[in-house]
């Protein structure tokens, strides 16, 4: 893991600080996600799938690969980008998943919970649609850390 310590000056903005942090987080997340996505069988849902970049990384021919997002444009983009019968993309809300009970073996929620009005409700919905013994992979950014960086950046730029 790389640790970045950068002194904020008027010449280097908050965004230039975030880039190395995001890169390190992505590397760590990818490591765990790669292990999780090496799934041999079972149905997989990617909740908050965006353009489908995570679900397309599932390494086998699962019987059910579903991406779900609340953004109509992103669902359309995912369908066009991954035009194959291997995937199914749906428009829907994470707190009211449009699926029956115990449908999936694996659920992914990468960088989604922080965008929801009711993260607890969404997690309950995940439990509902997962089969007994199903697995849920969740990641969230450390928003507090980014807020601290932002406030420090603004304070130092003001002086």
Overview of the structural elements:
By secondary structure, the chain is α/β, with parallel strands linked by helices. It has a single domain, classed as Rossmann fold (3-Layer(aba) Sandwich), CATH 3.40.50. The protein is built from four helices and five strands, in the order H-E-E-H-E-E-H-E-H. The protein has helices spanning 14-37, 72-81, 119-129, 143-158, and strands spanning 44-47, 65-69, 88-91, 104-110, 130-139. It has a five-stranded parallel β-sheet. Strand 2 (65-69), helix 2 (72-81) and strand 3 form a beta-alpha-beta unit.
| Major sheet: arrangement of strands | 3-2-1-4-5
State the CATH class.
Alpha Beta
Shape: globular
Give the helices and strands as they follow along the chain: HEEHEEHEH
Number of helices: 4
In CATH terms, what is the fold-level topology? Rossmann fold
In the predicted model, the low-confidence regions spanning at least 5 consecutive residues are 1-18
How many individual β-strands? 5
| Number of separate structural domains | 1
Helix and strand content put the structural class at alpha/beta
Q: Name the helicity range.
A: 25-40%
CA-atom Rg in angstroms: 18 Å
- Terminal CA distance reads 32 Å
Q: Tell me the name of the CATH homologous superfamily.
A: Vaccinia Virus protein VP39
Mean pLDDT: 75
CATH architecture: 3-Layer(aba) Sandwich
Relative strand content: 15-25%
Main beta-sheet strand count, sense and barrel state = 5 strands, parallel
């Amino acid at each position: 893991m790389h640790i970045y310590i950068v002194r904020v000056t008027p010449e280097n903005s908050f965004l230039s600080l975030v880039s190395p942090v995001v890169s390190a987080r992505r590397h760590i997340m990818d490591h765990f996600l790669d292990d999780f996505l090496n799934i041999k069988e079972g149905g997989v849902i990617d909740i908050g799938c965006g353009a489908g970049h995570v679900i397309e990384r599932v390494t086998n021919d699962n019987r059910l690969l579903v991406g779900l997002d609340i953004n109509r444009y992103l669902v359309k983009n995912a369908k066009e980008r991954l035009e194959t019968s291997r995937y199914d993309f749906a428009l829907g809300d994470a707190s009211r998943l449009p699926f029956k009970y115990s449908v999936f073996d694996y659920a992914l929620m990468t960088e989604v919970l922080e965008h929801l009005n009711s993260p607890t409700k969404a997690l309950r919905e995940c439990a509902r649609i997962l089969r007994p013994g199903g697995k849920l992979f969740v990641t969230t950014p450390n928003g507090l850390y980014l807020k601290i960086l932002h406030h420090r950046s603004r304070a130092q730029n003001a002086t």
